[in-house]
Structures are given as structure tokens and as C-alpha cells.
Amino acid sequence: MTQVAIIQSCYIPWKGYFDIMNDVDIFIFLDDTQYTTRDWRNRNRIKMRNGESRWMSLPVLGGRNQLICEARLDNSQSWRKTHLATLRHSYGKTPYFELYFPTLEKIFEEPNLYLSEFNHKLTSQISEWLGIQTKLINAVDLNVAGHKDDKLIGLVQAVGGMGYLSGPSAKDYIVPEKFVAANISLRFHEYSGYPEYSQISDPFDHYVSVLDVLFMVGPEAKEYIWGTRRMKMQN
Asked: Is the separation of the CB atoms in 194 and 15 below 8 Å?
């Protein structure tokens, strides 16, 4: 039974994003919906050596009156150089920095015009590093109309899905009866039991970009997200 998850693209997402991605057969970037400012679409947090966590934000043109897929990066600003320098400053001495950073540099240096295009490339590369086999699809390519639950159901049906995996916050507004009527099973993912690992500074922060765990533990990162280390924490 094909399982599907649907989430807006995010800038270098946290580990929970990839936890959901790994738990389904098809993952759909919901980028034909309203762009929201000061949100995960164009920013995320990284750990700093002084113990704080810092926002890294991509400059985006056009404001909130557009779809995510229409949002263009403001390439008149030197955000590429700034973000790469910030990552190097924080993580340059971590055990696995040199394993991943050169590839990140190449992606940053590509002449991307659109926010979603850039996010997709980064997310796809990170999922490859984590060994995720899930098929990634852009909702824009499916051309499914509708709003809220109806949109989600239409997307699941468009890819032949029989099950939908949602984030836990959607419990507040999703209508399960609609999924039952469409013969689609509904599950809610839980972000719990993630084990801690050695970060560059204390206190520990679970809610930073997934780059944090990659730079610190390298190929073992998946063990801290959905693997044996997490399962031990949950048992």
C-alpha cells in the first residue's frame, strides 16, 4: 500500500522532515500553495559555538502575495557567500564537515532563480546522503486543484497512494472523515525519542537544520533519526 507524505519545501530542514520522508514511498513538495514569510520556506537554524542557535535566512523577492513555486531568490544580495561562511565558521572543525561541505558549496554556487528549486536540490542531496529511497515529486507537476484536505487527497490519489502520513500539528485541523471517504488511510507522525549526540556547544538543540547531525556523526546520522539509536530511546 503506497504511503505518501506532502509538505512544503523548506530551507535545509530539520531531521524530523527527513524522518517523515523516509517513512513513506512518495514524498510530495507542496509548493503550489501560498508562500509565507518568516517561515521555514526560506530560513532555518544552525548551532553556534557560543551555545546559541542562529537563523540563516534566504532573501526572497515578492513577499507573501505569491505561491511558493513563484518565489524568486534575491540574487542581488551576497547570501550565498554569507551562508557558506556561516556554516564554515560554526562547523568547519566538526568530524564530517569536509565530507559534505564541498557538495553543498557546488549547490549554493549554481545559478538558481527560484526558492523552491534551490530547496529541492538541497533536500534531494541530503536525502541521498541519508540513504533515503523515497521518490520525490513536485506538486506543481501534478496540477491538482483544491484546498486543504481536498488538495491533499487529490495529490495522494494522483500518485496512486493509499495512505497519507501527516505531521502531528495537522491533528488540529485535518478532517479524518474525508480521508476515510476517499479510502485513504491516515497516520500522524510523531517527532519523539530522538537521541542526543555531541553538538559543537551546549545546551543540546534538536530543532536545528539536519546539517548539524550530518556534520557531527556523518554516515551514522540516520541512526539518530529513524535508526537503532532512536528505537532504543523509544523502547
From this structure: yes
Q: How far apart are CA 144 and CA 36, in angstroms?
A: 20
CA distance 96 to 184: 41
Q: What are the structural domain ranges in the chain? A: 3-234
Q: Which residue has the cell 511558493?
A: 68
* CA distance readout (Å), 192 to 15, 167, 181: 11, 12, 30
Question: What is the rounded CA–CA span in Å between residue 174 and residue 169?
Answer: 9
Grid coordinates of 40: 521555514
Q: What are the pLDDT digits (tens) for 134-158?
A: 999 999 999 999 999 999 999 999 9
* Residue 235 pLDDT greater than 80, yes or no: no
Within 13 A of 205's CA, how many CA atoms are on the CB side?
Answer: 22
- Distance (Å, rounded) from C-alpha 43 to C-alpha 114? 14
Task: Enter the pTM of the model.
Answer: 0.96
- How does the average pLDDT of the chain come out, rounded? 96
Report CA-CA distances (Å) from 102 to 84, 92, 222, 228: 10, 12, 21, 29
